[in-house]
Amino acid sequence: MNEKIFSLPVVNQITPFISQRQAGDLPVIVINHPKVRAAVALQGAQLIAWQPAGEEPVLWLSEKTAYVNGKAIRGGVPICWPWFGPAGEPAHGFARNLPWKLTAHDENAECVMLTFVLDSNEQTKRIWPHDFTLFARFRLGAQCDIELEAHGDYESTGAFHSYFAVADIADVEVSGLGPHFIDKVRGGVEGESVDGKQRYSGQVDRIHTQPEGCSVINDHAGNRLIEVYHHHHSDVVTWNPGVELSCSMGDMPNDGYKTMLCVETARISRPMKSAGEKPARLATTLRLRKKNR
Description:
The chain is mainly beta. The chain has one domain (2-290): Distorted Sandwich (Beta-galactosidase, Chain A, domain 5), CATH 2.70.98.10. It is 6% helix and 48% strand. The protein has 3 helices and 22 strands. A 9-stranded antiparallel sheet has the order 7-8-9-10-22-19-18-13-16, with no helix packed on it. Strand 18 and strand 19 (224-231) form a beta hairpin. The longest helix is centred in the C-terminal third of the chain and has 7 residues, at 242-248.
């Protein structure tokens, strides 16, 4: 799907490197820059493509996702907020299902910067009774920086539910996850990891509560490393649906689990606290490195 995004007709050429296009029902901001190609859907301020020049796509995006108003996009970097998981309805919060506004943009020889805003309204207050303003900021170049800034007076949980593209999930190892995790596949049982690493032989859904500041995805078959730096976080979530769940999901190919995994910068065990002039923040930095053969 990544290539299709970049071939969509231009609706509005905002700057030489930034254009607005349309994927199904959803407006998409597309970046074509000498250093990077990227795309952000206005629904959810969701990064759905990031590809440094000369590299394969870093983010995984389902070819079966529906670009329909109000329906979550399967892939990229969904913003889960103001709750993570099934703590409310819809699951993973409403921020990823609502339209945001592009309020600022800039560009230089190295990158493109975008700012999106979501404000509380009557619809959100029926679901969650708080006034808020959210800012999602992106710096897109050879590396990718994402920051969520939440203004208001409340506590919230959330995550960047980042989907990464890999060559073969059976040949992937993720390090830097720390010693302790909660295993949601096994009903919330707590577990310990000797080396802070994870490999994939079936469905995985874990909340790592003592992660290091950087998780490294070692994509052996793809001959590359994806570094995921976590900022203002308390947890890192790892997820792969495995074959049975993948086959049961209407917006994922039956074999989709083979070429993706999620490594998510999160605030779950310690909620984010926004108060007065002190907004809460959550941020991540993505970097790609080729392995030496």
